[in-house]
Amino acid sequence: MESKIYKTYARTYQAILRQAVKLLDWKPPMLLRGEGMLEHLPKTLKARNYNKVLIVTDKGISNLGLMDTLLEGLKSQKIEYFIYDGTVPNPTDQNAIEAAEIYNVNNCDAIIGFGGGSPLDCAKGTAVMVEAEHKNLKQYHGLLKVRKKLPPVIAVPTTAGTGSEGTLAAVITDSGSRAKYAIMDPALVPEIAVLDASLTTGLPPEITAHTGMDAVSHVVEAYINRSNTKETRSMAEEAIRLLFENLPITYRNGRNKKARDNMQYAAYLAGRTFTRGYVGNIHAMAHQIGARYPVTHGEANAIIMPYTLEEYGAAVHSDLAGLADAAGISRDGEDDAEKAQKFIEHIRDLNKALGIRETMPEIEEDDIDEMIEYSYAEANPLYPVPVIFTREKFREMYMKVKNGPQSN
C-alpha cells in the first residue's frame, strides 16, 4: 500500500512539474559547429566583451596540447586567460570551489569548459560557486535550486557523449560521501557550444565507445520517459539514427571526421533531449557505480541499459519501437514488442562490438544497500520514468548488473 501511495505521489509531482517547466526559458546555446570552429571562438568572445576568461579543464587535456589553438586565439584577441586543470574524472564539489576562487580573484568575465563531460560539468559547478557566500555546492542539488544569474559558460567538448554542452545539468561528486548528485537549472545551459570534430579525432577506441554509449543512454531514457515534447522526440529520433550509424565507424576509424562530426552533433541533440525529457533509473544506478568504482559513466550506462529496458517490459514497447523505426533496424510487419526486443538486442550487439562487457562483478554486495538509497532518492519523485522502481527492484537490478541476467 505504501508503495502504491508513493507512486501516486510521484506521478502527481511529475505531472505538475511537466506543466510548470513550460514557463521556463529553454533557449539553446549558440551553436558553433564545424571543423576549425575553435579558431572562431576568441573573436566571438571578444565581440561579447569578455576580456578575462577562466578555462576549466583537466591535466590530460593540458598535456595533449588540444587547447593550443584556443590559447593562441585568446592571445591574439588580447583576452587574458587563467587555467584550472585540477578537474578529476568525476568532478567534485572541491574542484568547483577551487576553480571559482581563481575566477573571483582574477575578476573573470566568463568560464570556458574544455574537455569531456567532467570539465564541462566542473565548469558549470564553478559558475554556481562564483561569488557564493558559502562553500556548500550540494545545497543546489536538485531542480531549480540555483535561482541566480551565473557567469556565462562556454562549452568546448572533446568527446561525443555527455551532451553537457546542451543541457541544464551538472553532475557533481560529494567529496565526503563519494555520492553523486545532479544540479539542474536553466541557468546552467551554456551560452555557447563549440562542436569542432577535429578535437575528437584522437580519442582512443575505448573512450569513443563509452562516451558514445553514454549518448545512446541519454536518447533512450529521455525518449521513453513521460516528459517529452514533439521537438525532443524529433531530436531523439535523429540522434539515435546518427549514433547507430556513426558510433561503429568512429570506433573502428577515429580519423573519420565526418563520422566524428555526426557523433558530436548526435551527442548534443541527446543532451538537448534529456534536458526536457530527463534521464531515469539507468542513470540513477550508473551515478552511484561511477562514484565508487573505476568504471566510466558511459560504460556503466551501457551495461545497465539492456537489463533495465527488459525490466520495463510492455511499458516501453511502443517507444522502443519508435526508436527502432528511426534507427532503421525494424522491419515491416513487426509489432511493437518485436521491434522493442530487436532494439534491446541491438544495444547488446553494439556493446559487444565496442568491447563493452555484460556485467560488473566488481560491485561489492556490502555497497549495494547504500547505492540503492542514493539511486532511489535520485530517481524519485523527479524522473518521469516509465516504471517507478522500488528499493527492492533497484536491488534486483544491481544484482543483475553484478552477476548477469540469471541473478534474482
What is the element layout, followed by pairings?
Layout: H1 2-20, E1 30-33, H2 41-47, E2 52-56, H3 59-64, H4 68-76, E3 80-84, H5 93-105, E4 110-115, H6 117-129, E5 142-143, E6 153-157, E7 169-173, E8 180-184, E9 192-195, H7 205-224, H8 230-252, H9 257-277, H10 281-292, H11 297-312, H12 317-327, H13 336-353, H14 365-379, H15 391-403
Parallel strand pairs: 1-9, 2-3, 2-4, 4-6, 5-8, 6-9
Antiparallel strand pairs: 7-8
Structural write-up:
The chain has 15 helices and nine strands. The protein has two domains: 24-199, Rossmann fold (3-Layer(aba) Sandwich); 202-403, Dehydroquinate synthase-like - alpha domain (Dehydroquinate synthase-like, alpha domain). The protein has helices spanning 2-20, 41-47, 59-64, 68-76, 93-105, 117-129, 205-224, 230-252, 257-277, 281-292, 297-312, 317-327, 336-353, 365-379, 391-403, and strands at 30-33, 52-56, 80-84, 110-115, 142-143, 153-157, 169-173, 180-184, 192-195. The relative contact order is 0.11. The model has no long low-confidence stretch (mean pLDDT 95). The protein has 408 residues and is of the alpha/beta class.
